[in-house]
Design brief:
Length: 292
């Protein structure tokens, strides 16, 4: 664990990647955020600065601490810049070929000490690791959205993940103040095995006219004690993301509840993606990072 000093985050222009970068930087690690889009990285940089600015306003850190954290973060569109990282966490979208290709590219630029972690929420760690020449150094590290606020991380070893890799990654999460749980390399791990079908059920309830999105969420929050309703959560993670989760999960499980509902597909086709587009099941103003 003491060997991890520099952390890279791939896909850092997205909401999840930006949150993971905050977790690493806040814990004192030098953090390099990578994305192919310079514009997305700039939006992420601004949102991150705002997030830490709010932390100062709320008395959670000093201005000097905020400055030190931001100074320890940098962004890049050049994958080669991740060559100095001891841990690289990928948070690109849920596509097996994309993740495998990225690992293969990271093999060529990173050193023999680098641990590769996947933030996948549905795909097999073993299958993702097959894209690397060093599958023993690949581990599942699924953060919960929003990563900068939620503590839970699902830690999943692949069939070839070494005990040393898993232990080092586990220790790193605890140093970051997160709460890891060990899961097997099963579809959806713990959370999404339960959540993807549940969220689709909520969409089908809207489609069937059972109740309005607001009343469905209110019933879940008041009746079950959830902090966020399923439709609010879907707007947060992105309705397009829910489709990708469903399309990754359904072929593996053949669970009809995991299949994307027709309403979900229609909303995505109409550009109603949730917070990121300003409208999903609910309407939003602004694009501040969650928690900022």
């Amino acid at each position: 664990m003491n060997n991890i000093k520099t952390v890279g985050v791939c896909g850092a222009g997205g909401t999840m990647g930006a949150g993971i970068a905050i977790v690493a930087a806040r814990a004192g690690f030098r953090t390099i955020s990578f994305d192919t889009s310079a514009e997305a990285l700039e939006r992420s940089r601004q949102s991150t600065a705002t997030f830490f600015g709010k932390s100062v306003e709320r008395g959670k850190m000093t201005t000097a601490e905020r400055t030190a954290i931001l100074d320890n973060m940098r962004s890049t569109t050049a994958l080669d810049d991740l060559g100095e990282c001891d841990l690289v966490i990928e948070a690109v979208f849920e596509d097996l070929d994309t993740k495998r290709h990225l690992l293969g590219a990271l093999d060529r630029v990173c050193g023999p000490q680098t641990i590769f972690a996947s933030n996948t929420s549905t795909l097999s760690i073993t299958e993702i690791a097959a894209g690397s020449r060093h599958p023993e150094r690949v581990v599942g590290m699924h953060f919960c959205l929003p990563a900068q606020l939620m503590k839970l991380i699902e830690m999943s070893p692949g069939l070839l993940t070494s005990t040393e890799t898993f232990a080092a990654a586990w220790d790193w999460t605890e140093v970051c103040g997160q709460i890891p749980v060990k899961t097997q390399d099963k579809p959806g791990f713990i959370l999404n095995a339960l959540l993807v079908p549940f969220n689709n059920d909520a969409i089908r309830a809207v489609e069937a006219g059972v109740a309005s999105p607001a009343d469905i969420d209110k019933a879940i929050k008041v009746g079950l004690g959830y902090k966020m309703g399923p439709l609010e959560l879907l707007d947060l993670i992105g309705l397009d993301t829910q489709i990708r989760l469903s399309e990754a999960f359904y072929p593996i499980t053949l669970d009809a509840r995991a299949a994307a509902p027709p309403l979900l597909r229609r909303m995505v086709a109409a550009g109603l993606l949730g917070r990121k587009s300003g409208r999903g099941f609910f309407s939003y103003a602004g694009d501040k990072m969650f928690g900022a």
